[in-house]
Write a structure and sequence with these properties.
GO terms for molecular function: ATP binding; inositol-1,3,4-trisphosphate 5-kinase activity; inositol-1,3,4-trisphosphate 6-kinase activity; inositol-3,4,5,6-tetrakisphosphate 1-kinase activity; magnesium ion binding. This protein is an alpha/beta fold. Helices cover about 20% and strands about 25% of the residues. It contains 9 helices and 16 strands. The protein is globular.
Length: about 350
């Protein structure tokens, strides 16, 4: 039976890239072989995993389903094991439809509405795949008009694009702590519908620390955006952690150019930087301390106002079919033409 003793036994199911970032002092770190019974490899005090592929495959592959089931049974049998993170909590973040519904629900839980800004015409939108894990999940497109929908593959969703001066703030959450890093992001684009061709890109080539892309080069000189205050980030993290039931996750924040308002645009399960920056947390590295202005946080799910159905011979291009569902029917793109709810920085509901 696992116990909290000096020299904790930490089991891990991670890819090679994440294994290299493990940095646990005074702990015995053990790689878990899913081909062998877990009982023979324990006991464990903590199990850290990145089994996103297996969780996705368990929806349509019997072998993967059995592996996940056996894993879950073992953790439930030895209830003192801390699993980072529980499979039911991870699963919704692998499906962008589900993760944005969670954001919408969080927004609806007693959050005061300060007003909706409705804009006529087609808003500049960013198109993302429904599946939020794997190489294909980083393939995105900027859509400038309704004709651009003909170029994308279902299932996918559209999210209103907010000008943010090509700066992204990535928040990495580790338990009750978090840290924030600044990353390059997409440049500003004129508002409203235009005849411009859609721009297809890989988000990894845009928002990595070493990224160098024409899409991140601002067309005109501008001041550095004011980062969100640590108070705002803390409240966002606290609300998301409670709603998601996760200990290891990442949040993507942007600051709107014109207003200084902050938007939550994405949430990810166990990003790799959570391991690499753990030592920084122990030294108390919380760099964001500047106020973001009277309006602080916007939770910006893309599907607040329902789907628009575009007929055509579209089908899911993901192999194997995403989440086990073969889609060869109507091409459904979820989008909204309105900005969602803005929340004051001094509001305490989140």
């Amino acid at each position: 039976m696992p116990s909290w003793r000096k020299g904790k036994r930490i089991g891990y199911c991670l890819n090679d890239k994440k294994k290299k970032k493990l940095n646990f002092q005074e702990c015995l770190v053990l790689g878990i072989d899913l081909a062998k019974p877990l009982r023979e490899q324990g006991p464990f005090d903590v199990i850290i995993h990145k089994l996103s592929d297996l969780i996705l495959e368990s929806g349509y592959d019997s072998q993967s389903h059995q592996l996940i089931r056996d894993f879950q049974t073992y953790v439930e049998t030895y209830s003192s094991i801390i699993l980072l993170d529980p499979f039911p909590a991870v699963r919704p973040l692998l499906d962008r439809f589900e993760s944005y519904r969670l954001l919408r629900d969080l927004q609806d839980q007693g959050v005061r509405v300060w007003g909706l800004l409705v804009k006529p015409g087609w808003p500049v939108s960013i198109c993302k795949t429904r599946v939020a894990h794997g190489p294909s999940s980083h393939e995105m497109a900027l859509i400038f008009n309704e004709e651009g929908l003909e170029e994308v593959s279902a299932p996918c969703l559209l999210q209103s694009f907010i000008n943010h001066d090509a700066v992204l703030f990535k928040v990495f959450v580790v338990g009750s702590s978090h840290f924030v890093v600044r990353r390059p992001s997409l440049k500003n684009f004129p508002r409203g519908e235009s005849a411009r061709k859609s721009i297809f890109f890989n988000s990894c080539s845009v928002s990595k620390p070493e990224s160098c892309s024409r899409l991140t080069e601002l067309d005109e000189a501008t001041l550095e955006p004011t980062p969100p205050s640590d108070n705002v980030v803390c409240r966002a993290v606290r609300g998301l952690r409670s709603a998601l039931g996760l200990s290891l996750f990442g949040v993507d924040l942007i600051v709107e150019k014109q207003t200084g308002r902050c938007a939550v645009i994405d949430v990810n399960a166990f990003p790799g930087e959570s391991l690499g920056e753990e030592a920084g947390l122990s030294r108390g590295r919380f760099p964001l301390t500047v106020s973001a202005g009277p309006y602080a946080l916007l939770i910006a799910p893309p599907c607040l106002y329902g789907p628009a159905q575009i007929t055509g011979p579209y089908k899911c291009s993901t192999e194997p079919p995403c989440l086990g569902q073969i889609r060869s029917v109507v091409h459904t793109v979820q989008y909204c033409t309105s900005l969602p709810v803005w929340i004051r920085s001094d509001h305490r509901s989140l």
